[in-house]
Amino acid sequence: MKKSALTAGIIILSGLGLAFAGSPAAPQAAQTAPVKQEGPKVKEFKYILFQLVRQDNYLDEATDKLDSANGSLSVHEITAMGLNLKLIAGNLNKVSELNKTQFAAIRPGSALSKYTNAILSYSNKVLRKSAQVNTLAARLAAQNKKTGLRDAVSSAKNGRKAHGKNISQLIEERKALAALAADARTLRAASRELSATSKWLYIASE
């Protein structure tokens, strides 16, 4: 399995920090040098990037779960996954708002473009993975709808459970997967908004 995106993000953050270290100054000059105005901004941009790394990691987990599901998820598991997708979408919306706030304050030509470029790169990764989650969730819902209807008819005719499930359970499973697909669509919309705000933030910093 790929290395944890969180680990990769920490490495990126460390590398960016080193990039800002600059050339060593004379001791006396270091004592009298004024605090750079961009200092607080660096901290804010690192926070945005760290949040994106976390969401990227969560999306990897969701993708693995959906990809290996193959119709074996329980209603409880499906519902829990839907809640996770809602949480990720909410976090992406918060990052988009942070991007908009920084967009209004950032100055063109600043060294912060290194950070905004990293933010844009991770936002695009999140966008791709959100699209993948959306595809997998929609496919799972479509497969369940097809097999669920067939099993429901079989169960009604024979008066027995289909694959160990009665009609009520099949209906609940179908509803849960439809809700999961809807949550995945909401997630994809949030990732699109994030990608757009990250792009404009990067452009503003150039």
Give me the secondary-structure topology.
Layout (H helix, E strand, L loop, with lengths): L4 H15 L7 H6 L6 H29 L7 H31 L7 H46 L8 H39 L1
Can you put this structure into words, describing what you see?
The protein has 206 residues and is mainly α. Helix content is 81%, strand content 0%. The protein contains 6 helices and no strands. α5 packs antiparallel against α6 (167-205). The two termini are 36 Å apart. Residues 1-8, 10-14, 16-30 and 32-38 have low confidence and may be disordered.
Shape: elongated
Radius of gyration: 23 Å
**Mean pLDDT over all positions:** 80
Low-confidence stretches: 1-8, 10-14, 16-30, 32-38
Estimate percent helicity.
over 70%
Structural class: mainly alpha
Number of E-type strands: 0
N to C succession of SSEs = HHHHHH
Q: How much strand content do the residues show? A: under 5%
Distance between the termini: 36 Å
| Main sheet: strands, sense, barrel | none
**Count of DSSP-assigned helices:** 6
